[in-house]
Design goal:
Rossmann fold; Helicase, Ruva Protein, domain 3; two-stranded parallel ribbon; mitochondrion outer membrane; single chain; Putative ATPase family AAA domain-containing protein 1; AAA+_ATPase; alpha/beta; globular; 2 domains; six-stranded mixed β-sheet; Mito_OM_Translocase_MSP1
Amino acid sequence: MTKEKLKAIRKSCKQHEKKLLSGVVIPSEIRTTFNDIRAPKETVEALKTLTSLSLIRPEAFSYGVLATDKIPGLLLYGPPGTGKTLLARAVAKESGATMLQISGADVNDMFVGEGEKNVKAVFSLAKKLSPCVVFIDEGDSIFSSRGDSKTRAASHRELINQFLREWDGMNDLSAFIMVATNRPFDLDEAVLRRLPRRLLVDLPVEKDREAILKIHLKDEILDQSVSLEKLAKDTPFYSGSDLKNVSVAAAMACIREENEIAAKHTGEEPHVFPEKRILTSKHFDKAMEEISASISEDMSTLSAIRKFDEKYGDRKGRRKKASALGFGGTTVVEKDSEAARVRKIEAS
């Protein structure tokens, strides 16, 4: 997909398709690759096999069982901030597919019948953008269970029904649907049946936290007083997003310190700021005061995700000595690292 082709598609789009164009991202504009994400080999290979191969080699899915019964979608679930959206962007980048990002606000509509039209537009636009990764973020906002008729409006049920009809008819469509959610236990069972491959993206353990910090700080100059190993050890409940925020907060603390020094400057010559900032342990101490973990062990949603994982999760991810299908597991029982994880890896 090129910018010129996207411009041509924009001109041919119908009313409801135009509302979705803000979520279109072409491969050349995606900077995230699998190298920018700390994820185990098993997760990356599963994502590549399920999405990239069906988009890159459609001829392999044109005959046999894959022609009529290919896996229609993939569910990424886990605690918030663990990198589900980044993984979806990396899939689109690596496969060369256009990404169509959809949220509940894009399809839900207060007017009767409009929601179903928006759903039809998702699939018709995906066909025009082919090959395409349709990424539905916060999937629970669209696919929450229809079971409780007292609290669910008829429009919501019709919206899901329309999605399921379109979904079932997409076998000849060179697109792949990825759904991400922090609340997989709220998803409708009919939707889960269309997401037979479910990958848990868990909280990072200590060695993964150190690797994530290295990714975010690779272009920063670190003082000798900074130990990323110690920082990783001191952040047991932190998600990848939390660690990014810590890195940003440390850099901002350094800038504030430079500004304070400049404000106190009294010499005749104008103050000259350093060419590049140097982050010290003091800056990270300040960052840790400002940024706390967004997840705790006693969160009710974490307990619910664990129950969902035990019932619906990928069983292969919980075999003895295997890594979880999220951030890598560990064979050492570490209370601080494992406490808030969905899957706890037992020592061998």
